[in-house]
Design a protein that fits this description.
nine-stranded mixed β-sheet, 2 domains, 473 residues, Ferritin, Rossmann fold
Amino acid sequence: MSNIGGVIKSIRDIFRKDPGLSGDAQRIEQLGWMIFLKLFDDKDQEKELLNPKYKSPIPTELQWRNWAADDEGMTGDALIDFVNNKLFPQLKNLTVGLDDTLGVIIRNIFDGTNNYMKSGTTFRQAINKLNEIDFNSSKEHHIFNAIYEDILQGLATKKDTGEFYTPRAVTQFIIDMVDPKLGEKIADPACGTAGFLVCAIEHVRKQVKNIDDRKVLQETITGTELKPLPFMLSVVNLITHDIEVPQIVNTDALSRELTSIRQADRVDIIVANPPFGGVVGDGMETNFPLNYRTKESADLFLILFIQMLKDGGRAGIVLPDGSLTGEGVKARVRQKLLEDCNVHTIVRLPQSVFAPYATVNTNLIFFEKGKKTRDIWYYEHTLPEGQKAYNKTKPIRIEEFEPLKAWWNDRKESEVSWKISMDTIIERNFDLDIKNPNKVVEEVVYDRMAIINKLETNQSKISEILEDLKSLA
């Protein structure tokens, strides 16, 4: 078995030698589509063995095995010419049937992706390195997932991509608390690189007992992502987690008219970290009722989530402080949330959870559709003892949520938890930005004499320095 981490690192080193690639985002995009085609072909070969009638949506000539798999194969200008003038144009314009989800995914990926490499020889070196990975070997598969997550995190710390990588511990905690069951339809309408969906897959997979269960799991994980790079990466992420046909749509979830979401489209579970602070695309707000029109993406996503959930459906989402407060449309959005759903828990997170690419205060909001909110429990998640902030080397860890998990099923007021009634919230015009009333602030008792002594000592030192300066003058 090759050392996958070493392979990926070697490829990235090879990329650095190519004049066409500049910056990590381009290198990840290049690596992404190459991995996608290799992974897809490995899976295709597995499917062909199991089902002789299976036909890949990728035309024969463009399959990885027929242009890339032979280490002595195409290289130099011929390789660049093939990729730029055959592979990309044909995959971008792939003819697909109405129900050919995979074909549509392939077309979308190549429509939003580029080949940046200029040198056919470095390209061949990178391809040969990638050929050392066998995506059908389960051991390699597991290690690849860990490295892949590392690549995604690396991408997320680049501010220019505008992507949020939700820390794994936060994703894990939300999934643990929402607790999806096999057969429940799970959606993330702003899925990024599919962190929440992968976490949900791993959670539900423990309940899979047979082939039928596996089929159910395959069909109940759904997502939407607008940006080409995260869309491609989310597809790769799901395929590496054994989702054969990822149900990820490459569009803006806000572009759908709200009233067109019918009962049949509704889902049991929404887990998401919707984009916030962002301004929505032109005219997107007109898909929403007049009362809730705003340019703030997080608020529109909240209305969308309420509409998408079935009665009794559950959600665990990340929201910034800005969505908990504010007048006008913001207050109306929160009022709708509290009247249509039971918002039972708000976990207040420390500012640095999303560092280094966001320093806003964020919250985890848990709610169930179909019942009104009567009370909201708040829980303030605090930094570990002695730690001033989270950062890249010391991120938030799932173990830190243990006290909160223990409290979850047996709720009591404490220094970090408090309960607010709906009456209070109505009085506050649905403002949910409620600070911890139980926080114990340590009073510092000043020792007057100590302060006087300190001042006198400093005063005499100043006098001495002044005398010295005068004598020098």
